C-alpha cells in the first residue's frame, strides 16, 4: 500500500541520516585526536573547525578561532 511504501522510504531516510551523522562524528573525533595541526576553512577562508593541536600552538581556543578569517 502507499502508506507502507511511505514508511519504508521514511525508514531509509532516517537510516541514511543516522549513518551520515555517525560519519560526521567519526571525522570530528579523528580531527581532534590527530597530532597534526588541522584547520578547516569555508570557501571564504573563514575558520569552520580548529583542532586541539592548533589551539596549543596558537594559544587561541576553538571558540575564539571559529568564524575568523584565516588569511
Given the C-alpha coordinates, what overall shape results? elongated
Total of DSSP H or I helical runs spanning 4+ residues: 3
Structural class per helix/strand content? mainly alpha
> Ranges with pLDDT <50 over ≥5 residues?
none
What does the largest sheet look like? 2 strands, antiparallel
Taken in chain order, the helices and strands follow as: HEEHH
**Strand proportion:** 5-15%
Radius of gyration: 18 Å
Number of strands: 2
Strand line-up in the sheet with most strands: 1-2
Alpha-carbon distance between the termini?
56 Å
Q: Could you tell me the mean pLDDT?
A: 92
Question: Helix coverage percent of residues?
Answer: 55-70%
Topology:
Blueprint: H1 2-33, E1 39-41, E2 47-50, H2 52-58, H3 62-65
Antiparallel strand pairs: 1-2
Short note summarizing the structure:
With about 70 residues, the chain is mainly alpha-helical. It contains three helices and two strands.
Distinctive features:
2 strands, mainly alpha, elongated
Amino acid at each position: 500500500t502507499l502508506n507502507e511504501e511511505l514508511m519504508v522510504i521514511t525508514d531509509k531516510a532516517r537510516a541514511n541520516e543516522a549513518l551520515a551523522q555517525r560519519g560526521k562524528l567519526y571525522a570530528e573525533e579523528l580531527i581532534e585526536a590527530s597530532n597534526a595541526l588541522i584547520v578547516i576553512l569555508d570557501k571564504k577562508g573563514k575558520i569552520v573547525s580548529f583542532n586541539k593541536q592548533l589551539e596549543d600552538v596558537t594559544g587561541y581556543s576553538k571558540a575564539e578561532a571559529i568564524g575568523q578569517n584565516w588569511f
